């Protein structure tokens, strides 16, 4: 993983420029809306007197929101775009625009410039602007229009800005370097291995004594932890597509009419064979060849034999020209007209189609099998009901939406549509069972219009067959839970804390004994009725050792030759490790490994360059005069 990070940071500045532009153009980061084509718009912010217009901000916010929605919808179709916090998004995007303006001004003040030739070369070599490997001006115009660019000049200005910022960044990152000592330190650290042993000290008895005074004190000191969640009691109206099936009525005439339409679509099938002579440059020669084939057949030669010998349709000629069963409309009009005029066994005269000249033979005729009305009745009735239900469901959904929008509660919509108002809750913002498990419902319930203003919600599409409307019947604000209700919970938590503290004290006491050589390692293991688990030459990337243990072991100081380093280390899930660090080593051949020193040096230089640029960026922000409007 470290070497991969080194490779990622060891790219040339030219590569970074190109990647930066490609990311800008094709990843659509939201920066394409900032190319200063709205100078007379209202101002959202100013950076050292340079305006960022509100129009620029709104364009960038809209694009960022669209990208965010696309990404979140990939996580599941339950996502509701209205769940995005527009105020937070707008603040975040404005911060990005300000940051970009600061960097661009810094690059200009530092004297960085981008030539027109460099922009031209990047545009000409961008694959998305090419057709068949060559730059295409029409393709270029289409792509930048789809990106929201008003003109080629606006796009070029944007590319120039991005290149300026990238060049400014690389002025720091590409000039950073690593000293031999820095590189050697990284080599030693990355290739270090450690010998250690560990004993697990679990949390002890979790039934420790906890007094009522302790519980009350903890409750008073942490009152905010013991609040009831904000909840709502909802009234709901649900409209289901399935409920309209019982109301659907189908008369016999409609069934008969649909039956006639269905059987009218049944087509006669004809099995055909053909001989095809394709027309190249000489129509007369092709016609002469097909007439010669027709003469051979008329003289008594087998059609299949002639097809194998003459036909240019290699797919069918191996099978005597057989095309299988065909319904009308499978080929062009001339072919169809000739085929459907034949009697079984008959061969047509030469027929000219868009493919060439044909001889067509009708080898079999299959009349359509017409099912009886009774055999199709159930299917036809169901299809007619589905059509009715679809219309009724759409009409009722629209009526529900209109009534809910106009009515002061859900009683009127319920009466008009014959629905029942149901009560749901109390439920928290995170939802619950039934309708409350749907994020769209909970998002609507806690929206300002429904929660604060007391309106009915908009129509909520729960799935393709179900819609609903909700309103808040009761809003339950967070309230302090009584001590009596949480006493058992606090007692359990304090008892565990005491047990955890006891484990910490025991682990540290044992580590101290070992440091002072009051006990040896074997005696400690015997007292704990455990064994030291030994790990030799463990690296930082060891896969069979818990990462939290490995990370803490590599943070311990190097042991002396006389005595290991002993420590008590906390386990993430509770309890402690008693550790004996016995040795630290670095692979002797690491410095001679092919390519390693260069990679390590590049990594250190890359990290140093990033830190230099971050410091310069921070200084620009600190010195900039930034006004938000």
What does this structure look like?
By secondary structure, this protein is an alpha+beta fold. The protein has 22 helices and 17 strands. α8 (180-190) crosses α22 and α10 (252-264) packs across α15 (373-406). It starts with a helix and ends with a strand. The model is unreliable at 1-41 and 589-597 (pLDDT under 50).
What does the secondary structure layout of this molecule look like, with pairings?
Elements: H1 2-9, H2 13-26, E1 43-47, E2 50-53, H3 54-73, H4 86-109, H5 116-124, E3 130-131, E4 134-135, H6 137-146, H7 152-173, H8 180-190, E5 192-201, H9 212-221, E6 231-240, H10 252-264, E7 269-278, H11 283-298, H12 303-310, H13 314-317, E8 322-326, H14 333-339, E9 351-352, E10 356-366, H15 373-406, H16 411-417, E11 422-428, H17 439-445, H18 448-452, E12 460-463, E13 466-476, H19 483-515, H20 521-527, E14 533-538, H21 547-553, E15 565-570, E16 576-586, H22 596-623, E17 626-628
Helix pairs in contact: 1-22, 2-7, 3-4, 4-7, 7-22, 8-22, 9-19, 10-15, 11-12, 15-16
